[in-house]
Amino acid sequence: MKGTPAVLGIDVGTQGVKAGLFTLNGDYKISYKKYHTNFPHPGWAEQQAQDWWSALKEAVRECVSVAPDITIQGICASSTSSTVLCVDREGAPLAPAIMWMDMRASQEAREISEIDDPILRYSGGEVSAEWMIPKTLWIKRNRPELYKQSYKIVEQLDWLNYRLTGRWVASQCNATCKWGYSSKDGGWKRNFYTAAGLDDFYEKWPTEVIPMGEFIGPLTKQASEDLSLDEGIPVFQGGIDAYAAMIGLGVVKEGQIAVIMGTSFVHLALSRKPYFQKGMWGPYPDAVFKDMWVLEGGQTSCASIVNWVTNEMAREYGDDSIKAHQELIEEARELGPGANGLISLDMWQGNRTPFRDPLITGVIAGLTLNTNRAAVYRSLMESVAYGTRSIVDIFKRNGYQINGLVACGGPTQNKLWLQIISDVLQIPITINKFTEAGILGGAILASVGLGWFNSIEESAKHFVEAGNIVFPNKEVAGEYGFYYQCYLDLYRSIKPVLHRVYNYRSGSGRLSP
Predict the structure, then answer these.
(1) Bond before 354 cis per omega within 30 degrees
(2) What pLDDT shows up at residue 508?
(3) Alpha-carbon span 435 to 438, nearest angstrom
(4) Please, what is the Cα angle at 113 between 109 and 115, to 5 degrees?
(5) pLDDT at position 512
(6) What phi, psi does 36 have (nearest 5°)?
(7) What are phi and psi of 70, to 5 degrees?
(8) Measuring CA to CA, which residue among 312, 392, 393, 294 is closest to residue 348?
(9) Is the backbone peptide bond immediately before 228 cis, with ω within 30 degrees of 0?
């Protein structure tokens, strides 16, 4: 075998694909390719699956071309969840993929959440409109011909692994967290799916479940040609992109919360015991590590709404979004907590946790003729920080001991935003030296699958190195505490109005819950 051994981590996210090659001595090569999201109706979001594969081909080929002295020995991919796709027997997409952020299955989610089944205790007593079960039911009800034509209804990761290996398998991570699978209850509970209107789920879904880091199969000849890789490279099971990033952040034991910051924010923590808590997702059994539980919170709209400000209010910079953000950051830095009296809600595409409200939308309150773009920019950053605090407070109220946050993603480049989040939470935030945690998590899983390390913890210790720590400013704790309470009060007071508007615009004719 020629060249330095390396592993390939793949992260298929909301806005594009990242591919990364990693060697044991710490060398790496990264490539990133974008694709497009369509928003055909309020609350809907779709992508074309072939765009994922085209972007992946470009990213992997680019990595390989700049690293000719490297030999890839293992591959592991992670992706968004639940991004749902209908395919035929050859794996060809039959319709656009329904993105994770798509809320069209809100009614189905409410009905499924009313089923009297103990399996729901692993998801805070409810399912989300984002998840695999309500989306599959929505397709069955609203696209019956598509449902009938579909050989399989799969997640983005399932389709990617099929394209890599030719096998239809599910990740234990995805199945446990978003599909109602539970290793503690014997796996698939057929009675629950029948009650949900999916008595044929076992035929429609890929139901062979493989844990993260375990072998799926060798890279097929077709995939090797597409990606310019050697045929037969072992492919190992990944999981939800945020969960792979948690591993890539080195959050592999109790006490820390991994915050994956991007279009959305995801908050993940591990525990030796289950915390059954309303308003959160989980506790998920064995989703990453056997005999450990995962606690999860999430915000749907984060970097996306801050980017909105630059797109709409800093147009003089054209396509130079970096320069636009830099200018707005400096303007917003001059303002104190509260952004000159603006209070915003970060729920532009609904709320994941703790309110579990798919019908809520965004709000910017307190506007006056003196309001400028810097105040709007800062207010939206603060709103995301308040949303994060509302999640972390649930962890705390249920007795989970938090030693600190470890964060990754694009917003970590915004030092003002990180300081605001730390100040609102009054918790230190660690930023590791290598920040592309999603692809690093995939590389760690592949390295364990290959036997380079005995465990995920051992591999993470080798690859992950802590960097800077952002400490909270205690002098602004009281002021941010006041505005945080205003954020909560604003949500409660405006919720009925925004529900009515959402239902009116969507033409549902249904009363708000």
Answers:
(1) yes
(2) 54
(3) 9
(4) 125
(5) 41
(6) -110, 150
(7) -110, 140
(8) 312
(9) no
What the block records as the tokens of 127 is 């399912």
| DSSP 8-class letter at 232 | T
Burial class (CB in 10 A: 0-12, 13-18, 19+), 275: middle
Cβ atoms within 10 Å, residue 448: 25
Distance CA 481, CA 147 (A): 49
Distances (CA, A) of 22 to 4, 9, 75, 76, 410: 10, 8, 11, 12, 21
Q: Long-range contacts for 47-53 (Cβ within 8 Å, ≥24 apart)?
A: 47/83, 47/96, 47/97, 47/99, 48/93, 48/96, 48/97, 49/85, 49/93, 49/96, 49/97, 49/156, 49/159, 50/93, 52/12, 52/17, 52/156, 52/159, 52/160, 53/160, 53/163, 53/226
User: Measuring CA to CA, which residue among 300, 307, 280, 388 is closest to residue 347?
Assistant: 300
* Cβ neighbour number for residue 197 with a 10 Å cutoff: 17
Q: What's CA 29's distance to the chain center, in Å?
A: 23
Closest C-alpha among 445, 459, 463, 440 to residue 11: 440
The Cα 340–Cα 346 span in angstroms is 18
The upper half-sphere exposure of residue 281, i.e. CA atoms within 13 Å in the direction of its Cβ, equals 24
In this structure, the number of other CB atoms found within 10 A of the CB of residue 61 comes to 17
b/e map of 453-468 (b: 16 or more CB within 10 Å)?
A: beebbebbeebbeeee
Closest CA to 271 of 244, 247, 252, 258: 252
Q: Which two tokens stand for residue 27?
A: 């060398």
Q: Taking the CB of residue 372, how many other CB atoms lie within 10 A of it?
A: 12
The per-residue pLDDT for range 256-308, each reduced to its tens digit, is: 999 999 888 999 999 999 998 888 899 999 999 999 999 999 999 999 999 99
End-to-end Cα spacing for the chain: 61
Torsion over CA of 320, 322, 326 and 327, rounded to 10 degrees? 10
Q: What percent of the chain has pLDDT over 90?
A: 86
Q: Is 26 exposed, middle or buried (0-12, 13-18, 19+ CB in 10 A)?
A: exposed
296, containing H or E segment: strand 293-299
CA-based radius of gyration for the chain? 22
Query: Under a CB-based contact definition with an 8 Å cutoff, are residues 137 and 198 in contact?
Result: yes
What percentage of the chain reaches a pLDDT higher than 70? Answer: 98
- The whole-model pTM stands at 0.90
Q: Give the pLDDT of residue 278.
A: 82
The DSSP element (H or E) to which 209 belongs, if any, is strand 209-210
Strand residues in 70-195 grouped as ranges (E) = 70-79, 84-87, 97-98, 152-155, 170-171
Closest CA to 19 of 464, 436, 503: 436
pLDDT higher than threshold 50 for residue 93:
yes
